[in-house]
Amino acid sequence: MKSHRAGAQTPRRRRGGKALTLVVCVALGALLAIGTLPNHFSNAAAIPTVSCDTDPNIFNTGYSESRRGIAADRSVDERWQALGGDMGVNRGYGAVPPGPLNPTSLAGFVNFGDAYVGKVHNAWLSSPFGKAQWISAYYVSPTSGARNQNSEWADFYYSFTFQLDAKVDRSTFRLAMDYYADNTVRGVWVNGVLKTSNRVAPYTGSGFTDGGQLSTVLNGFSSGRNTIVVQVGSAPSAEGFLAQVTSTRLCSSLTVTKSVSGARLFASDQFTVAAADSSGTVASATTAGTGTSATATAVVAPGVYTITDTLAQGSQATSGQYNGTLTCTNRTAPATPVATSGGYPRWQVTLPETPHDYLCTVTNRSKSFEVRKTVNPPPPAAVQPNQKVTYTVVVKNTGGTAFSGIGTDVASFTDDLSRVLDDAKYNGDATNGAVVTGSVLSWKGALAVGGSATITYSVTVNPLGAGDGTLVNTVTGGSPCSKQCTATTSTPVQSYIVEKSASSDHALPGDTVRYTVKVTNTGKVAYTSASPATFNDDLSDVLKDATYNNDASGGATVSRNVLSWSGALPIGGTATITYTVTVRDPARGDRSMVNTVVSAPSGSNCFAGSSDSRCTVTVPIRAGDITWQKVDATPGRNLLSGSAWRLTPKGGGGTPIEIQDCAATPCAGRDEEPLSGGFRLTGLRPGAYELVETRAPSGFLLSTDPISVTVTANGVAKLNPIVNKQVPVPVLPLTGGLGADALSLIGGGLLALTAVLAGIRPLGGLLRSRRRAS
Question: What structural domains and CATH numbers belong to the chain?
Answer without folding.
Answer: 17-245 (no CATH), 252-366 (2.60.40), 369-492 (2.60.40.1530), 496-619 (2.60.40.740), 624-724 (2.60.40.10), 740-773 (no CATH)
